[in-house]
Structure formats: C-alpha cells, structure tokens
Design a protein that fits this description.
Layout lengths: L3 H12 L4 H9 L16 E6 L11 E6 L4 E8 L2 E7 H11 L17 H9 L3 E6 L3 E6 L5 E13 L3 E8 L8 E8 L5 E11 L2 E10 L4 E5 L8 E3 L4 E4 L7 E11 L4 E10 L2 E10 L2 E9 L7 E6 L6 E5 L3 E9 L4 E9 L1 H4 L2 E8 L5 E8 L13 E6 L3 H9 L10 H14 L4 H13 L3 H18 L29 H9 L4 E3 L9 H15 L2 H37 L10 H9 L7 H14 L6 E2 L6 E2 L6 E3 L5 E3 L14 E2 L6 E2 L8 H7 L12
Parallel strand pairs: 11-13, 25-26
Antiparallel strand pairs: 1-2, 2-3, 3-4, 5-7, 6-7, 7-8, 8-9, 10-11, 11-12, 12-14, 15-16, 16-17, 17-18, 19-20, 20-21, 21-22, 23-24, 24-25, 27-28, 29-30, 31-32
Helix pairs in contact: 6-7, 7-9, 8-9, 9-12, 12-13, 12-14, 13-14
Length: about 700
Amino acid sequence: VGPKKEVAECKEKFASSVDPTVSQTFMLDRVFNPEGKSLTPMRGFKYSSWSPLGCDANGRCLLAALTMDNRLTIHANLNRLQWVQLVDLTELYGERLLEAGYKLCKADTPCGELGDFPEFQRRHSMQTPVRMEWSGICTTQQVKHNNECRDVGSVLLAVLFENGNIAVWQFQLPFLGKESITSCNTIESGIGSPSVLSWWEYEHNNRKMSGLIVGSAYGPVKIIPVNLKAVKGYFTLRQPVVLWQEMDQLPVHSIKCIPLYHPYQKCSCSLVVAARGPYVFWCLLLISKAGLNVHNSHVTGLHSLPIVSMTADKQNGTVYTCSSDGKVRQLIPIFTDVALKFEHQLIKLSEVFGSVRTHGIAVSPCGAYLAVITTEGMANGLHPVNKNYQVQFVTLKTFEEAAAQLLESSVQNLFRQVDLTDLVRWKILKDKHIPQFLQEALDKKIESCGSTYFWRFKLFLLRILYQSMQKAPSEVTWRPSHEDAKILISDSPGMGSTEDDQEEGTSKQASKQSLGDTGKGVDIDDTAEDSLHQSSDTGGREPMVEKLLEIQAQIEAVEMHLTREHMKRVLGEVYLHTWITENTSIPTRGVCDFLMSDDGYDDRTARVLIGHILKKMNKQTFPEHCSLCKEILPFTDRKQAVCSNGHIWLRCFLTYQSCQSLVYRRCLLHDSIARHPTPEDPEWIKRLLQGPCTFCDSPVF
C-alpha cells in the first residue's frame, strides 16, 4: 500500500490514536494487523480454487490458493507429490496499483495521503481478495513469423476484492509462471460487501458468451459483463443483468452455474443456483428471439439451519446442499413449459455415519461420489471434547450405472472419469470377477467401433481382476514402516517417518459408504483373504495359478494391441513430416520390422503405411546407437533396447526412442516411461511427447 517505512509509521500512528473509532478499527481488523499480537496467528487457507484440466505443463490442474493473511498464489504439481508455487498474484497486483498511483483509470480523482485512515483502508480493500474462480479454457489464434496461425489455449482467473472490484487475469497455456501472464484488467462491479463469485459461461448457436456472477453479503446477485477482446468467438452482455436486487440481508454463500438443455424450448439454457441463508435461489437464463429471458425464484423448506456448503453435478444438473446438522438435500431440476421446478429429497448422513456435524460437501467430476467433511456430533446432549475432521465418501451411483456411463462416454478418457472407474474397480476387487453383462457389452463395443478407448477399458478391467486374485499384503501398503532406519528418498512411500506424522496419518480416516445396498462397509483386504482361503480349501493353489496365468496372457495381448495401434500412429506422423531418406530420431525401420514380425498380425492399413515409409526411406535403416559403446541398438522389444555389450536402455512409449539419459518421465500409474523433449526435436515429435499414457490415459511427468 506504500513505502515500507511510511506504512510502519502509519500503523503506529493509527494503533496509538486517541480516537477509538480509528484505533479499535485498526487493531481488530486482521487485514491491517495480520500479526495480531495477542490474537490467534493467521495460519491456513481462506479459499482455494482448481483450474480446469489441461492448464499446467503436465496437462493437469493448477491450484489458486488464498491464505488467511490475504495472499493469493498459484501452485502446480510439476513432479509426483511435489507442489511448487509458480506466481504470487497479490505481489504483482500491488506493483500494478503502485505504478498507477492506486487509481483504476487516469480519469479518477487523485488519491489522498496514506496517513489518512480512510485512504489507508481504501488501498487495503482494493487489493484484499475475497474469492477467485477459474474460467473454462478458451482458444486464441496466434500469428507466427511465417504468417502461419496456431491455436493457443488460455484461461482466465477472476479475483473479487473487498471493495467490489474484479481483476481478470489472462494466462497463456501451459502456465509456467510470471512469463505466462498475458494481461490483467480490472472491472468495477458496483456490488457492496461482495461475498462470492462465479463464472457465467453460456453457449447459444455456437456462440460462446461469458460474464461474472457476483453475490453480496446484503443479498443482491448480478451478472457483470466481461469483454474478452483478445478471445475470438467469445461474446459478452451489453450491460449488467440483475438476477436478485432485494437487500434482504440474506448473504449469498455459494453460486453455481450449470449449462443445461431445455427440452421444451429445444435450445441450451443456463441455470444459476445460489445458497442464501437456509434457502436456494435459482435463476434460469434463456436466449430467445426476444432477447435474454430471466426466470427466478427461491426453493424453501430445505434446511432449518443456514446452508454451509453447496455443490452441483454439471452432467445432469443435480444440486446438493448441506447444513451443519448433518442433513444433505439433493435437488433435481425438472423443466416445465415456462421455467422449471425442483424435486428434492433428504439424505440423512446420521443413518450412514452416526451423529455428525457437516462442514462442506463436493461432488466428484462425473457424479460418482459425494465427499463430505464431518466431525463428531452431539452424544447424550453433549458436544465432543475434541474435533476429529474426516472426509467421508458417499457413493451416488451404483456399479451398473457407472459401467454404463463409461461404455457410453463421449469423453473416451479413463483418467478424466477416474471416479467412475473407481466404482468399477471397487466392485471387481470385492467380487473377484468381471460381471458377464459388462464383458459382453465391452466386447460388442470393441467389435463395432474398435476404438482404443474400449481396449484401454478392457485392460483396466483385466488388471483389476488380476490384482483381486493375488494374495492380499499382510501390512497396509500406505502406512509408513517403523523398521527402516535409513531409506532412499526416491523409493520411500512417504516423506514423513516421525512418530507424530504416523499418528496423524492413522488418525485421518477416509471411509467409503453407500446409500444403497451395494458395498456397505466392505473391507477389500478381508474379502481378498477370505476368498483365497476358500479357493485353497476347494481346489488348492494350482487352479488359482492357472487363472492368474490366463489373465496375464489376456493382459499382454491387449497391451500388444494398444502398442501396435500407437506404433501405427507414430509411423503416420513420420510419413507425414519427413522427406525422402531423412533421418529422424525415431527408430522407424525397427518399428516397421517389429510390426511385421508377427505372422498372426495381418493389418492391411499397417502394411500399406509401412510400404510407403520404406519407399521413402530408400533402403536406409538409420539405426539407434548405444551412447556408451556406440554399438547398434536393435529394436526387438517395445519396452527396452539392449546392445550387444549388454547395456540396457528403456524405451519411450510415446516415440519408441531409447531413453539414453538419467532423467525421464513416468505416467501417473507407473505404466510406462517417456523421454523429455529436447530443443532440437521438431514440433511433431514434441506434440507426440505431450500425449497421455497409451495404456491408462494418465498424464506423464
């Protein structure tokens, strides 16, 4: 807010002021007075927000975190289990305001002296974040030096400040740090005492519209236009739209925006829901020939206490709310001719978890789980002495629903549907077999379309089945070991090995319960051991070993099919991007020979493609050489390359090059390894290296 020396003098002046309205306001406001002297220290986080998938260097999410001392930072998970701070937005925004003289535009009146308490308050409130939210990923076109156009992804982060201003940061993707910031614009919302923020994103006739929904602690809710001049194909509102204007002193706690399809109007629409006290305010926005139609109302009679948390399943529009007394409401929107109505039903967590207090809820991306933060409730009319916070998982879908959704998915990516695959995994581990209906449906899908997504789904099922047949470990694998005095850090399952950490780890529980009959209180380890005892009693170990060998053979066959399909893709890229007799770093001849080495593999597409490539190569082989002894590295195995002197190099599963360096990447589930891109790699090889795992769809880092 000003030079350090001047700020320190002003703080001392306000703290010792004879005017109690100044001294008491200053001493009790933790924004001005973060150290707080005798007050509790400002540790922890006030709010956090996840970006969409595909924003960091590994194609995963960025995390915007707002600390209790009002510092807004962005973090990324660049290496496994390692979070890195990329940028401090509070510091950057403060520098921008300092350069502008703490004015939003040149026409503003000159600001007063820092020694004036109102000016001191103003400078703090204009850069004290209240909420921040990420937009969806939008695409811009960038013109290169040779007049070629390339699509560049960008994402927006809106930050709502205490004085009602909104800073909209634009980041180029992948976000790497300060250098990826494209712009920062500040919008005046005109909302007093703002409490919550959400993006409004609406698509009408292939035209994308955006805006920001702002809620106030006094009650009003409105949409603010956001002018995205740099983003092609995006439009905004001409003026703000007031969704609720009554100053009824019901604070807006949470806002969710859900895109839906209106079955009667035959067009897309936008449903905005906001938690206001114990009520849910809803607003249906619909663009017609007459303009923007707005229908709004409140849903009452849901909770006897104020709503503490709200979440929404964006796939079907279902909204979940909870109050602190352990009651969760499920609201299902049903369209009428004019607008819509809500059907709601009560989910009593006390029937599943016993007497609990709820502090927050969240629904998983595909709606398979509801995560609930709970503490112990009252027992015999008494509050518990200690609070133990737990994250409980309630299943919202049955195994059959999850399997059907995975089979009919338009996403066709297992990693993006990991909550659905977890339900399927849990069922197979419990029952120790793949249900017949799922096997038949999957085989039909593979026969009809042959998409590699269904082959990856089949591989996932076979691997879980293989895991369920194996003997369960006698010790819990995630629990730190007390025996190892020294352990290599890279191999250790967890960084903390002190007694305090172990006690803390065992006290944090995550229980998985179901609302239906499927899987109430099932212990996977116990069922695995029981089934093994049963199998050893009935038929001995030999049938189990034969079954495991059979599943292993099926796994290898599916992996080989996926490898061949990816090899064809790599060869296609080689053919499209190389000249005659050009040496690429990809072992093209070795991949061609590997594909044609199996007599049982008869793929006409592969034969034609290989014929064209060999004609282009003009009898050249371009083999890889061992960097240690310069001997030729033959292509005999898709996973590793071994030279005649016995030096072994692992192969990159994305380009099939040998990784002859000490650093390489692994996929999230440790299926495969991949090399890092190098500066001399052409663009098409760098593009191949950005792909996910060909076996499990996981990102590689």
